[in-house]
Amino acid sequence: MLYKSTRSNQPAAKSAAEVIKEGLAADGGLFVPESIPTISLEEIKALCKEDYPTRAATVLSKFLTDYTYEELLADCQEAYGEKSFVGGAAPLVNIHDSLEALELWHGPTAAFKDMALQIMPRLLSRALKKTGEKRTALILVATSGDTGKAALEGYKDVDQIKITVFYPEDGVSRVQKLQMATQTGSNVNVCAIRGNFDDAQNGVKEIFGNPTLSKTLDQNGYFFSSANSINWGRLAPQIVYYISAYCDLLNTGKCKPGESFNVCVPTGNFGNIFAAYLAKQMGLPIHHMVCASNTNNILTDFLHTGTYDRNRNFYLTMSPSMDILISSNLERLLYFTAGSDQTAAYMSALKKDGHYTVDTDILAKIRESFSGYYTDEEQTAQTIKGTYEKYGYLADTHTAVAIHAAEEYQKDSGDLRPMIVDSTASPYKFANNVYRAITGKDATSDLEALDELSALTHTKIPYPLSGISTRKVIFDRVINREEMQKVILEEIG
Ligand SMILES: *Cc1c(COP(=O)(O)O)cnc(C)c1O
Question: Ligand 1 centroid vs 252 CA: distance in angstroms?
Fold first, then answer.
């Protein structure tokens, strides 16, 4: 299987290892496979008897053909084993009636980014060997919260890789700060920046773009790499849990072999829902995909009108991982629907004018598989409260956005076949917002919200978050933005 850029009409020429190492194509496009492999009902039935790591290795081996099945199985067993995912990765839990939560947050940081970031570093480490790379990859991350911690957990102690995370001192929650400051691992470094997220992000961009620094790195046996969410190595592993979920629907008798189901995904960068699209193209019987947004409803508008327009207000919501105006992975859907020339034209219009409009036949094709719904702040809070009080299911803010969207879709369409709702974060990651939605009042503090939510709902704080305030702080360094390069130079000796 070879890969190419979404913006190029040249034949595919890169191996999976190469695209995982490179991240972004040279023309600015995203890497896509030259064709989509298939999975038959017989193969799916065989996977029903297997555990998650085996399901993952089987699906990944169809895309990453330059990795052996044994390599992938070993990596998947480490990434998705009991040590990281206590009780198993990606369980299906009934919410009510035909709605099933696909819980993607049982990993080491209690959020769905773990599903990709537990395996991606292992794929990168092997990619370095497969491409004959002798240097060590230095991963740089600027984070406003969740991605930094998930990347630290994923890259810690991985061969031939080091990671440095910068976060804004006053721009992350108390829990998030503690999660990063107490990080263990021999190859990790965490540094707070005096400033906001943009300062951290711009600092990292300057470092990536500084040729002198790159040369110094090279002379010392290092090169810069990113843990970006548009990397194919983060997307491919997300296809797995849709196939795994169908196995679980078959195992519990909620679907008969071949019967179809729907999915609803709380969407930001369009990575998670695009993975569902790929699973459907492989042959998984997904009937329809509901794209759920919060008040930043740029995708809802796109799916209704065919116009993607980023010239609009930006809102801070209680589902911050979906506060996004550029959904990068939508480019991959455009490529598979409209081809590379059109995609290149749309992307250059987006860059130049901030908007583009797809042809009516392209929109019609997309709408055959996707519907867009959005959930505002009040509906999100009401959904958390109602779902908990009526059905005993405790949802985080992002999951609640999707539950509401799924219910609206079912009401509008009358389509009541099994609906899988992606649950992307533990309610304890956003404990205060969840507590307020249920009780109508604030918890004592962000940290105490964890215990107070647990006492209120008689549910357990997940292991990555329990006892966080008593863990040993390892990283307490706070620097000015100008000192970021100095930190990098120290890092490479
Ligand atoms: C990243 C994230 C999302 C959005 O996923 P995309 O793949 O970017 O669409 C939704 N919920 C949570 C909790 C996330 O961390």
Answer: 27
Residue nearest to atom 8 of ligand 1 (CA): 269
Q: For residue 173, what pLDDT is reported?
A: 81
Which atom of ligand 1 is nearest to 275's Cα? 7
pTM above 0.85, yes or no: yes
Average confidence score pLDDT of the chain: 95
Determine if ligand 1 sits within 6 Å of the CB of residue 8.
no
The structure tokens listed for 131 are: 């491409």
Q: Of 290 and 327, which is predicted with more confidence?
A: 290
Reported confidence tier of residue 429, pLDDT bands at 50, 70, 90:
very high
- Could you tell me if the CB of 272 is within 6 A of ligand 1? yes
Q: If we measure between CA atoms, which residue out of 70, 464, 16 comes closest to residue 234?
A: 16
Is any ligand 1 atom within 6 A of the Cβ of residue 111? yes
Q: What is the pLDDT of residue 152?
A: 96
What is the 267 CA–ligand 1 centroid distance (Å)? 6
Tokens (6 digits) for 313: 């207000």
Instruction: State the architecture of 92-111+233-466 in CATH terms.
Output: 3-Layer(aba) Sandwich (3.40)
| Pocket flag, ligand 1, residue 271 (CB < 6 Å) | yes
Residue 194 CB partners (closer than 8 Å, separation 6+): 169, 478, 479, 480, 481
473 Cα–ligand 1 center, Å: 28
Residue 429 Cβ contacting ligand 1 at under 6 Å = no
| Helix (H), strand (E), coil (C) string for the chain | CCEEECCCCCCCCECHHHHHHHCCCCCCCCEEECCCCCCCHHHHHHHCCCCHHHHHHHHHHHHCCCCCHHHHHHHHHHHHCCCCCCCCCCCEEEEECCEEEEECCCCCCCECHHHHHCCHHHHHHHHHHHCCCCCEEEEEEECCCHHHHHHHHHHCCCCCEEEEEEEECCCCCHHHHHHHHCCCCCCEEEEEECCCHHHHHHHHHHHHCCHHHHHHHHHCCEEEECCCCCCHHHHHHHHHHHHHHHHHHHHCCCCCCCCCEEEEEECCCCHHHHHHHHHHHHCCCEEEEEEEECCCCHHHHHHHHCEEECCCCCCCCCCHHHCCCCCCCHHHHHHHHHCHHHHHHHHHHHHHHCEEECCHHHHHHHHHHEEEEECCHHHHHHHHHHHHHHHCCCCCHHHHHHHHHHHHHHHHHCCCCCEEEEECECHHHHHHHHHHHHHCCCCCCCCHHHHHHHHHHCCCCCCCCCCHHHCCCCCCCEECHHHHHHHHHHHCC
